[in-house]
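The following record pairs a protein chain with its ligand, zinc ion.
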Amino acid sequence: MFDCRQVLAELSNYVDDEVTLELRHAIEEHLARCGRCSVVYDTTRRTLKIVSGSLPPGAPLAVSERLHVRLRQLFAGGA
Ligand SMILES: [Zn+2]
């Protein structure tokens, strides 16, 4: 069974669809039960969507760097 730490560690891979089917099911099962992780998942997904949808090619690197810092804070704080 996955705990929050494991889910959060895999969350960015999960959002990017870079996890095995087994892992995906385990994460989905956890997200369905765990309000805290599902909030982090929601935030991460929305943030990535905004970034990939609105940043023009060649956008300042600092923007995505800031995002990564923010995501790391989220993961560190949620675990
Ligand atoms: Zn959790």
